[in-house]
Amino acid sequence: MPKLTKRAIDALQPQEADYFVWDSEIVGFGIRVMRSGAKTYQAQYRKGGRTRRVSLGRHGNITPDQARQKAREVMGMVAKGENPAEEISQHRRAPTVAALCDRFFAAHAQERCKPSTQAEYKRALELFIKPALGAFKVVDVERKDIADLHHKSRATPYQANRTLGVLSKMFNLAEVWGLRPDGSNPCRHVPKYREQKRDRYLSTAELQRLGAVLSAVEAEGSETPYIVAAFRLLILTGCRLGEIQTLKWEYITPRGMELPDTKTGARRIPLPDVARAVLAALPRMPGNAYVVAGKIEGRYATDFQHPWRRIRTRAGLEGVRIHDLRHTYASNAVSSGMPIQMVGRLLGHTQLQTTMRYAHLADDPVNRAAEENAARLSAAIGAPTDRRLTLRVVS
């Protein structure tokens, strides 16, 4: 056939076996006629001693001229030393994002992360990432796909940013595993949403109300002594909930609470006398190694949220979270004049930047000292003490 044209191709009839008809203008450009009557344009070349073919499209879906242009592009790639047929084959075999999610969770999250982090990753993977990107090939995901997913969760910026973080880590590992080229992480340059920090500190009056309610529920037996002790320990030590929840009696030593595994690794937490008194008053459950014993024999308490909601409502502290007790511990430490580095050590922070969120509270003791000092000097010189004085503008 001198040249593949629409009329000539339409005239080709199916036979008992598939056959090829080649174009006279472009070497390697042809059409495959299958027994079913379907006709597909082909580009054929040799690479590594083997004949390779690339399907260019089905006759009727694309025109002969469009197929001819595609054939030229394929031959151009071959001339540059590329192997388009192999690249297409590799793309077909390439894993999907859903498969990457499963590998990421099994090979990274379950092996390297703590259970709480695993749960957070699992939630992001199953609820947000797989539904949106699961069918995509890993190599096909682009920055705009990530940006679109991030934008869809803009109403919940915290969740949107956490999902973006999981995606970024996952695509970094995809590069390590050879599933994407180095430096191709599509999460790069996708800006995070601004998050509103929920720094809630209990005032002295609020702490007194909370203390009174804890004593009341303990006396009347509406909450277990273990739950009450847990909340007292959270206030007195500044620990994270998980650190108190899984605390074992064997971890308590003369040096403090020697925790073998926390969010930041093994950690020794100081145990003040008042906290030791809380522990001393707590009955030990036979056969239970945990301080905060739960309802199941030999296990620790797992439900803190429901008791906390009942307690905070009774104390008039609606909206206060359990984690805010840790904030209260930190704010009291900083406001008392304790150096920010020491507060960080008490809280178990590995980076000073994490503790710096409380730095502005360090102004409180400085301001009080300034007021007291100025009051003494004012008494000596007879300066006015009325704070309602106004300034006159002298023109």
Automatic annotation (TrEMBL):
Keywords recorded for this protein, A-Z: DNA integration, DNA recombination, DNA-binding
Gene3D superfamilies assigned: 1.10.150.130, Integrase, DNA-binding domain, Intergrase catalytic core
SUPFAM superfamilies given in the database record: DNA breaking-rejoining enzymes
Start and end residues of each Tyr recombinase domain: 197-372
Keyword DNA-binding: yes
InterPro entries in alphabetical order: CB, DNA_brk_join_enz, Integrase-like_cat_sf, Integrase_catalytic, Integrase_DNA-bd_sf, Integrase_DNA_bind_dom, Integrase_recombinase_N, Integrase_SAM-like_N
Taxonomy, superkingdom: Bacteria
One Pfam family hit: Arm-DNA-bind_3
Domain Core-binding (CB) positions: 95-175
Family per record: Belongs to the 'phage' integrase family.
Name of the protein described by the UniProt record: Tyrosine-type recombinase/integrase
Native organism: Thioclava arctica
Species lineage: Bacteria, Pseudomonadati, Pseudomonadota, Alphaproteobacteria, Rhodobacterales
